[in-house]
Design goal:
single chain; 253 residues; alpha+beta; four-stranded mixed β-sheet; three-stranded mixed β-sheet; 6 helices; globular; disordered N terminus; binds zinc ion
């Protein structure tokens, strides 16, 4: 379920160059944080920049909405630092990048960031993978925390997010107009493990609160996945539906 806590957004100055997401970078980087309320420096605050699949604490914090949330050492105000986070699964070769939408002017610019990130990672891989051709990397870009959480959980549950976005489109296009894409936003609901259904949480965009739930039989997902993924022409069609790293139902509506 997307995080609902909304602490104020904190300010940070980066002492290092922007390429802090190099493969060698530690999962936490020391930023020069300042409290947005009283301006006090926050020495030693550890900002998570890379999340690994085995990082249970980081993942739990992400789901709880407490990742990169700090409490001012001086005035005790909680604040959140909205800085980029990369979910990086080397074993399954997946990258999910979160860069807060407010900090990028355009989607194109954010996609460029991801391309550069990917190039950096691949360049670092050269030589290390000389024994064999590296398999393709699945790479996704997200602009909100809710999107980021959703993509991470779809990835962890081994669901193809493109098929899931396609299913959302079918739900939103239902003739009865039950779900208005202008007012409602659908998110994969991983909090209700249900092998028989693919469940969604429908959030009111304005309030950010859950308005309803919806589900489709998992069979529908499986059939769609087979249709799209087992055929070269259909795979190409899927690539056309979702060009680039930003995979969202909004591309289909
Ligand atoms: Zn403070």
């Amino acid at each position: 379920m997307p995080a609902r806590k909304r602490p104020v957004t904190g300010g940070a100055r980066r002492p290092a160059r922007r390429k802090s997401l190099s493969p060698a970078a530690a999962a936490a980087t020391i930023f020069e944080l300042t409290c947005p309320k009283c301006g006090a420096a926050q020495p030693g605050a550890k900002v998570t920049t890379v999340l690994r699949p085995e990082d249970a604490d980081g993942l739990a914090a992400l789901l709880k909405g407490t990742l990169n949330v700090f409490t001012c050492a001086k005035c005790k105000t909680p604040f959140r630092l909205d800085s980029p986070v990369l979910y990086r699964d080397d074993a399954r070769r997946g990258l999910i990048y979160f860069t807060p939408g407010e900090s990028v002017e355009t989607l194109e610019r954010a996609e460029k960031q991801v391309t550069e990130l990917l190039e950096t990672l691949l360049a670092a891989e050269d030589g290390a993978t000389a024994a064999g051709e590296p398999t393709a990397i699945t790479c996704r870009l997200t602009l909100t925390r809710s999107q980021f959480i959703e993509k991470v959980m779809l990835w962890r549950n081994e669901l193809d997010d493109r098929i899931v976005e396609y299913v959302k489109c079918q739900l939103l296009n239902k003739k009865d107009g039950q779900y208005d894409p202008v007012r409602m936003e659908l998110f994969y609901d991983f909090s209700q493990p249900d092998a028989a259904n693919l469940t969604f949480l429908i959030l009111d965009r304005e309030s950010g609160q859950p308005a309803a739930g919806a589900h489709v039989p998992m069979e529908l997902y499986t059939e769609l996945a087979a249709t799209f993924l087992n055929d070269a022409a259909m795979r190409a069609e899927l690539d056309k539906l979702f060009p680039g790293y930003y995979v969202a139902v909004s591309r289909l509506l």
